[in-house]
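Entry type: protein chain
Record version: 2
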Amino acid sequence: MNKLVLIAGAAFALTACNAPKDQKTEAGNPFFTEYTTPFGVPPFDQIKIEHYLPAFEKGIQEQAQEIDAIVNQKSVPDFENTIVALDQSGKLLRKVSAVFYGQNSANTSDEMQELSKQLSPMLSKHEDDISLNPKLFERVKQVYENKDQMGLNKEQEKLLEETYKDFVRSGANLDEEKQAKLRELNSEIAMLQLTFGQNMLKETNDFQLIIDKEEDLSGLPASLIANAAETAKAAGQEGKWIFTLHNPSVMPFLQYADNRSLREKIFNGYINRGNNNNDADNKEVVRQLIEKRLEKAKLMGYKNYASFVLEDRMAKTPENVYKLLDEVWTPALAKAKEELADIQTEIKKEGQSFEAEGWDWRYYFEKAKKAKFDLDENQIRPYLPLNQVREGAFYVANKLYGITFTELKDIPLPHPDALAFECKDKDGTHLGVLYMDFFPRASKRGGAWCGTYRSQTYVDGKRQGPVVTIVCNFTQPAAGQPALLSADEASTLFHEFGHALNNLFKDVHYYGVSGVPRDFVELPSQIMEHWVFEPEVLKVYAKHYQTGEVIPADLIEKLDKSGKYGQGFATTEYLAASLLDMDYHVLTEIPADMDVMKFEEETLGKRGLLKQIPSRYRTTYFNHTMGGGYTAGYYSYIWAEVLDADAYEAYKETGDIFNQEVAGKFRKYILTPGGIDDAMDMYKNFRGKEPGTEPLLKNRGLK
């Protein structure tokens, strides 16, 4: 759903305030003047915490005045004076929101988190003041009902349709009493989602596995040990080693640490985030959250929250989602059981007889893969220096679309660790600015994502390029060494770069048609992953960081043969999370004493999930759904994979993975038009047909 007020990176709710104009507060506040920076990027070096609240307050006030002007004008409602005026309102609010929420995810602080709590009810009220304004809705409705007489083009028709639909889905047709209840629910949901995310960050940062005996480091790669020593030194514990729950630390520890009891300790720390009965516990937060969401859905006339959400997605219904998930679940679980048998074989090889547990899977799976394919992930890392992988992504984009990326030095950065690049089209015209911020820190939430500090738009009839950011949590480089990526991290970089290309190529005139359905948005990112390990791409960027040697052909062959091994685990843990997300949001009743961890155990247990494979995200740290971004939508990755696997076949069928005719169609029909067309129509315009699941199952080695 397109929000009436757009905020970069998330659907944050927004709020009117009658705060008086404060000249002292405005003085020196970068948000109150036009940016004079290169390409108009935010002046991050000038923005201080005290600048945000006054800018939010004034932005809210300005937009409220703009809405009043739309409502109180005497002229007959038409597309320009109502729909476009609404779409273009809230310039300052959009400006400050993009920076604040981008920074709150990538470089937060206690002060920012406190401010986000203060802003949440303000912004929720403001959005409701717009979407539940009866006079405003009446004008929108008049335009909508007379659209056939207005001579609108396709993009304008779509904006009108989406604007009207957003009002209806935001409660504009509810009576006054129900609207008051909806306001209350929206505010409560926003605060619960915010609390969930803050608790998760705290739980992730608070855990430390401290090792003081060198023998307990047995099996770990030297680079990981060096990073752990640096972490300990920074924490004032020089001479020790500290491992954390950030993925670049915990995952390789589980993969290589010989000490089984320490693997168990960090594994349990990881899967119990938000489930420790402390001040950051998320169990009751989740129960209240799904309760409030269900209450909102019923208020809006739906039987459950998933039905409300999915009506506006490609999937349309929960039944369609379950159909796809169930179709993939059976072969994925069968493959996972085969992998478990291999793991048990490796345990027996060591003369052990214990049954594998969750903290054993990655460790013994690595041994099984080495036994089957003579491949150790640490053989690959030296050929995947971060800078070269990044240049590999740039190379693929250049081969496909002719675009270039040039590093920018004298430009404000969102964090000192970030890099900036200008993206130019093949004719040399400016497409946008791309920031890349790769390494974990306590101020950054986990995972990887792509967002914008400014969305693509038009100003005075001229396209204004976006300011895009890619944020990751890759393995920190050891002192004096380059950052060496795992194969999974290389795929992640290409994935997020695909999102960036979507933002950079977008060319729409209105904010209200800039987005696509959540279950379509992963197509541009996931298709990029197909190029990462193509031999002709590896030969360009995969070069040994010390010798410059191109990755050997036999290593590429091993990588290719082993590529589908492990898809039982990977697919099953992903599907478990997708099913868990759906199962919460198809509920039609939430008991006051509901035990969410018991619900998780039962809903996944009945499907036969192996005890050694926890859901990729367990309930209390499942920020994708509980944080609000992918609510009743985590299935989107596999839904989009049906599309991306089929789409990549279009390149393969030509015998040229860089076929520029196919790439041109993909750019024209998928990457450029935003949400002007229906998502499936966009796909069929590119491919000429609807996709099937065969390429997906083949791609994952499940067929």
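Comment: Strands lie at 209-211, 241-243, 404-408, 419-424, 430-437, 449-454, 457-459, 462-464, 467-471.
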